[in-house]
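Help needed: design a sequence for this.
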């Protein structure tokens, strides 16, 4: 059952260029283009509107549901070195979006509508400026450091560098699947960063991100396995 949440807008960024896997956003995965997984998940989770910001004419000219709107992305925002924040600001301003926004990247096709709703419910508490999805990571990263000349500067507490891995605290990493934030705050600050960040934890099998052909083929296998386990 959908949770009783305020109306919200999903934003799906799609870029034509991809060095790791050209054409990946339109490449069929599980019988439909990769980007359609994010679109279908947004609608299943209850999005009032979905904005697709893209330079792909195939998407802009596609027959989309009435609550889905294509936002043509200008060339200066379509390069592979362009950060996500200005792309989002442009889409939100073009779409005149207010209130809660959910960023859904097409390269994370294994999230579920329940993952999206869980992030929305946490954001609705008002305790966080940003809510994002994470997955468990190797706690051994707490032993790492950065270099300051020839000086080792620990990334975490110095004592972690010399601890047994098993005794280190759990670590999570952003998995790129779900980000929830307020439209006005992002436009005003030009950044996704927030003082208080809440998280929902997703299992590794739903946290798969697609960058290259190997990733895509692994996602196909994971989807096929899920279909067998949940006929």
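Sure. Designed sequence:
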């Amino acid at each position: 059952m959908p949770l009783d949440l305020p109306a919200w807008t999903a934003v799906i960024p799609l870029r034509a260029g991809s060095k790791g896997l050209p054409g990946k956003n339109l490449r069929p995965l599980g019988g439909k283009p990769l980007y359609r997984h994010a679109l279908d998940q947004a609608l299943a989770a209850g999005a009032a509107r979905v904005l697709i910001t893209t330079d792909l004419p195939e998407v802009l000219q596609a027959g989309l549901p009435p609550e889905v709107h294509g936002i043509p992305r200008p060339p200066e925002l379509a390069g592979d070195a362009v950060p996500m924040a200005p792309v989002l600001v442009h889409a939100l301003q073009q779409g005149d979006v207010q209130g809660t926004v959910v960023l859904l990247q097409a390269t994370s096709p294994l999230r579920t509508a329940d993952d999206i709703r869980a992030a929305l419910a946490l954001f609705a508490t008002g305790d966080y400026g940003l809510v994002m999805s994470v997955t468990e990571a190797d706690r051994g990263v707490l032993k790492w450091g950065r270099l300051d000349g020839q000086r080792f500067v620990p990334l975490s507490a110095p004592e972690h560098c010399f601890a047994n891995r098993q005794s280190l605290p759990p670590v999570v990493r952003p998995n790129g699947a779900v980000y929830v934030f307020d439209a006005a705050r992002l436009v005003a600050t030009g950044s996704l960063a927030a003082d208080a960040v809440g998280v929902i934890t997703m299992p590794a099998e739903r946290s798969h991100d697609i960058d290259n052909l190997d990733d895509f083929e692994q996602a196909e296998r994971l989807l096929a396995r899920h279909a067998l386990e949940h006929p």
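The longest strand covers residues 171-182.
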